[in-house]
Amino acid sequence: MKVNLEIQRFNPETDTAPHFKTYEVVVDPTDRVLDALMDIKRNTDGSLAFRRSCAHGVCGSDAMVINGTEALACKTLIQDVTTEEGATIRIEPARHMKVQRDLMVEQEGFFQNFRSVKPFFIPDDSKQKPEKEYAQSIEERAQFDDPTKCILCGACYSACPVLDKNPNFIGPAAIVQASRFVFDSRDSGLGARLEILDQPDGVWACENHFECTRVCPREIKVTKMINFTKRAIKQYRDERGEQVNDGGAQA
Amino acid sequence: MIKHEYDAVIVGAGGSGLYAALEASKTARTAVVSKLFPSRSHTGAAQGGIGAALGNVEEDKPEWHAFDTVKGGDYLVDQQAAKILAEDAVRAVYDLENRGLPFSRTDEGKIAQRRFGGHTHHFGEGPVHRSCYAADRTGHMILQTLYQQCIKNDVSFFDEFQAMDVIMDGNRVAGIVALELATGEIHLFRSKAVLFATGGFGRMFKITSNAYANTGDGPALLARAGIPLMDMEFYQFHPTGIKGMGILITEGVRGEGGILRNRSGERFMETYAPTLLDLAPRDMVSRAIMTEIAAGRGVRGDRKIDDYVMLDATHLGKETVYSKIPDIADFCKTYLAIDPAEKPMPVQPTAHYAMGGIPTTIDGVVTTGTVTYDGLYAVGECACVSVHGANRLGTNSLVDLVVFGRRAGMHIADYVKGASMPSLPEGAEEAAVKKIERLHDGSKGPHVGPFYTRMQEAMMAKVGVYRNERPMTEAVDLIRTLRDEFRAVRSEDTNKAFNSDVLGILELENLLDLSLVTAASALNRKESRGAHSREDYPERDDAGWLKHTLASLDGQDVKIDYKDVDTSIWEPKPRTY
Ligand SMILES: Cc1cc2nc3c(=O)[nH]c(=O)nc-3n(C[C@H](O)[C@H](O)[C@H](O)COP(=O)(O)OP(=O)(O)OC[C@H]3O[C@@H](n4cnc5c(N)ncnc54)[C@H](O)[C@@H]3O)c2cc1C
Ligand code: SF4
Ligand code: FES
Question: Complex ipTM, two decimals?
Answer without folding.
Answer: 0.97
